[in-house]
Design a protein that fits this description.
The chain is of the alpha+beta class. It has helices spanning 7-10, 89-113, 137-153, 164-169; strands at 5-6, 16-27, 30-35, 37-38, 52-54, 57-65, 68-73, 82-87, 117-122, 127-131, 172-182, 185-195, 198-206, 213-221, 226-235, 238-243, 260-269, 273-281, 291-298, 309-318.
């Protein structure tokens, strides 16, 4: 067994290639063809596989197994022979465009709201993206407009593969023991994680958790950059704060030169918001169940941070 050379990573625009047939195995689908190199992208990462031909024989499926690219055909190909592979380029190019668009959307959503892409699927007529948070119609329209602007800019797409050593070198992972008391509760911050791709703080609540309040960690780094972490995940007593960049005016990324960050816990009680609209939808007329949708805006400023109440003392994290 040998690893197939993946030509689609070396040149994403390669439409045709030659290769040597290493194996041809009969299977339920027909035949499994293993080549020494291939430009056929296998199914994976939410993207369907490439289709095309090998010496004119239709390739009906492509999968990766044990580092080998397996091409499924209905006809056998002679082992040791040389074949010409041709990609169904219209299909591939469409998938490339859609997949690149998904990355732009996910990146903009993460930058603006801190949500992660937790699921992605492409089919012939629909693409779905699952996010770790909910966006309003207005927010979706904003992301759509920004995505279209990025496409019109026609910026070059770079493909990078940071090594394990590079990731470890650029990752700060600190175990914390920072207790913040508010009312009868204690929020114990347990871990701070920061790398070029995300900045996250994890913690545990001890005592009552107020489900009708939102919590933020606000502060600055030692270079003067204002920093905002918003609570984005709460599972029982466990909680997670993720840095938001671009969501609220004035708040930025942690400076690459920063050695420390100083933060303060803030609470935003939802009674500082007032209702601006309510919609009741009857999705099934055969029952008495209605789905309600309510929209709130915060008093006192452009964002919920403007109404935030400081809790406990500020604290400093040494990140270098």
């Amino acid at each position: 067994m040998s690893e197939t050379r993946k030509l689609y990573y070396e040149d994403v625009y390669k439409k045709e290639f030659t290769a040597k047939v290493l194996e041809c195995r009969e299977c339920e689908k027909g035949f499994e063809i293993i080549l020494d190199q291939s430009a056929f992208y296998p199914e994976g990462g939410g993207q369907p596989c490439d289709l095309g031909t090998l010496n004119g024989i239709a390739v009906v499926d492509v999968q990766e197994k044990d580092r080998e690219i397996v091409h499924y055909t209905k006809e056998a190909v002679e082992v040791g022979s040389e074949v010409i592979g041709k990609i169904d380029w219209d299909r591939r190019f469409d998938l490339m465009q859609q997949h690149s668009g998904e990355h732009i959307v996910s990146g903009l959503v993460h930058e603006a709201y801190g949500y992660d892409n937790v699921g992605f699927h492409m089919s012939s007529d629909v693409i779905t993206v699952d996010l770790s948070g909910v966006l309003t119609e207005a927010q979706l329209a904003e992301i759509e407009a920004e995505t279209n602007q990025k496409i019109w800019e026609n910026s070059e797409v770079e493909i990078t593969y940071p090594s394990k050593e590079e990731l470890e070198k650029n990752t700060v992972d600190i175990n914390l023991d920072q207790n913040i008391k508010f009312d009868s509760n204690i929020l114990n911050l347990t871990e701070f994680r920061w790398n070029p791709f995300e900045s996250t703080i994890y913690g545990m609540y001890h005592g009552t958790v107020y489900i009708d309040s939102d919590y933020y960690l606000l502060g600055t780094d030692d270079q003067g950059n204002k920093i905002c972490y918003q609570e984005t995940g709460r599972n029982g007593q466990e909680t997670m704060f993720r840095q938001t960049i671009g969501l609220y005016p004035g708040y930025e990324e942690i400076s690459p030169e920063a050695n420390t960050i100083t933060l303060q816990l803030y609470e935003v009680k939802n009674d500082t918001a007032h209702q601006v609209s309510e919609e009741k939808m009857d999705k099934d007329s055969s029952d008495d169940i209605y789905e309600e949708s309510t929209t709130y805006v915060y008093d006192g400023g452009e964002s919920p941070i403007d109404s935030a109440i400081p809790i406990g003392d500020n604290f400093t994290i040494q990140i270098r």
